[in-house]
Amino acid sequence: MVAIALTIAGSDSGGGAGIQADLKAFSALGVYGASVITAVTAQNTRDVTAVHPIPNDVIAAQIDAVLSDLDVRAIKIGMLGSGDLIRCVADAIAGFDGPVVLDPVMIAKSGVALLPDDAVSTLREVLLPRATVLTPNIPEAACLLNTTDAETDADLQAQGQALIDLGAQAVLMKGGHGAGEMCIDWLMTGVAAIPLSAPRIHTRNTHGTGCSMSSAIAAGLADGMSLSDAVSRAHVWLHHAIVRADELNVGHGHGPVHHFHGLWG
Fold first, then answer.
1. 196 in any annotated domain
2. For residue 113, is it within any domain?
3. Is 76 a known active-site residue?
């Protein structure tokens, strides 16, 4: 039987991030994707112009509908727009005993805030301890820890360990916002710090990289891979998706990565 993964996230009308990117990543890696939509955004490659939250009871009903019928092997959680919704999702997945990939979506590529400041502490206290792996970028990690952005590999590792100390089982500290010709992510497991490096790709078409990476990890976990193997495969897959991103020529701003680089284009 095909492995099934569930994404709980917002919708991106431009198709490059959120639910749309998650389902593309699942499909590209051979996993069936189910979805729970937390918000509808009016969004393209240049801007987010409107956000319409889905009522919490409807979100809870979506989660129940999926988990009560489908054999979900992993859950990816992305955009959650309020503290109340964070608690709602935590309650709705309380009976799920599989791996959870938590992508702490806080700021859109355009710079628009997607998570209110007062909800950050709720995310930290309620959902972070539920995460099999947390996947923050540099600004998100700093926000969760109420500190400054990491500037060195040592900083990234220290902040990753601090997030584990807050309850996450593992943390993937993403280096995409860093400097230098090599982009290094650090997988922190509590017992090891594992570097994953790749040449930095100079392109503006990186919309949806965070969503896609976390979903690719969830796909691997749903398929029975170990965490380190799932993260390593996702890292290589996303690198190639960024390398091939310019071929798509979608939109006039930050275009999407090429999720299906292994299939067409």
1. no
2. yes
3. no
pTM tops 0.90, yes or no: yes
Where in the sequence is the domain holding 93, given as residue range(s)? Answer: 4-136+210-247
Catalytic residue among 10, 16, 208, 255: 208
Tell me whether residue 210 is one of the annotated catalytic residues.
Answer: yes
Q: Report yes or no on 35 lying in a domain.
A: yes
For residue 258, tell me if it sits in a domain.
no
Q: What is the pLDDT of residue 14?
A: 97
* The pLDDT value given to residue 15: 97
* Residue among 78, 21, 79 nearest 205 (CA): 21
- Which of the following is catalytic: 83, 210, 220, 255? 210
Domain tally, the chain: 1
Taking the C-alpha atoms of residue 138 and residue 146, their distance in angstroms, rounded to an integer, is 12
45 is catalytic: no
Helix (H) or strand (E) holding 134: strand 133-134
Per annotation, catalytic residue among 33, 76, 209, 220: 209
